[in-house]
Amino acid sequence: MPLVSALDILGPARQSGYGIGAFNTNDMEITQAILEAAEETRSPVLVALSEGALRYGGDALVRLVTAMAADAGVPVAVHLDHGSSFESCMRAIRAGFTSVMIDKSHEDEEVNVRETRRVVEAAHAAGVSVEAEIGRLGGVEEHVVVSAEEAFLTRPDEAERFMAATGADTLAVAIGTSHGANKGKGRPYIDHQRIREIAQRIASPLVMHGASGVPEPLVERFRATAGALDNASGIHVDDVRQAVTEGIAKINTDTDLRLAFTTRVREVLAASPAEFDPRKILGPARDEMRELVRTRLELFGSAGRA
Questions:
Q1: What is the C-alpha to C-alpha distance for residues 25 and 107, in angstroms, rounded to an integer?
Q2: Which of the four pLDDT bands, split at 50, 70 and 90, describes residue 229?
Q3: Which residues 6+ apart lie within 8 Å of 55 measured at CB?
Q4: Best exposed site among 18, 174, 176, 269 by fewest CB in 10 Å?
Q5: Are 180 and 209 within 8 A, CB to CB?
Q6: Residue 139 above 70 pLDDT?
Q7: What is the pLDDT of residues 53-99, one digit of tens each?
Q8: Strands 206-208 and 76-83
Q9: Catalytic amino acids?
Q10: C-alpha span between 42 and 272 (Å, rounded)
Q11: What H or E segment, with its residue span, contains residue 7?
């Protein structure tokens, strides 16, 4: 099935009140897990690559991911996650991405508007949708630590003004989530009233970054293999379900995949210390991630939508 733009997938999701998963990949096994789970559940999906993933895998990774996504039997968009510049977004578009994010949320409003509008004009000419961001999430993003003091939530009036000025297709909002495996002590607070207020002003699909659940059973398994992960916490499934009904149409997941992958690799090697066949090590990790993605897609309500 030909690749589609993110808006082709996210527009109907926003209108009908369900969510679409955007899952970050870095290699073949992760990509297989995402696409196989999407096909099993008949879910549209976004396969996302960050600039870090592109530095790691290069052009070969892009060709692999776009080819696998185009072979899927469900609608798939290949998405650039947290593009840092106009040039980065243009490279992604030339490489075959059907969705790009330009993230200038750390800049002042004038710069964010100007650079986002610049990307929108070029991307739309190529039939590619654009995600932008207002507000600032805490946590670790591409090895950049954003403290709680530096993070700030999205203001509804600013979001409305920004979308009107830029023409962006989707908007990532800061509503209490954060990147990484430690999203605060206990259950992180999600500002649902803020989501509703933004959604009342903006008809475009809204995006939840830093949405991994960091499941406690998976954390315990990781720790049982001598993995060091203190104070792990994620976004509660009830908060995800509620956010989807309030206007969130795209839910990003990365940390959960990393945790599932690494946990299963540790378990296999601990159980079979003489094993050195990569297929017998990475295959079980792929299966673990596929199950996690399947569970997430069912949570978002996208199962059966393709």
A1: 27
A2: confident
A3: none
A4: 269
A5: no
A6: no
A7: 999 999 999 999 999 999 999 999 999 999 999 999 999 999 999 99
A8: unpaired
A9: 81
A10: 35
A11: helix 6-16
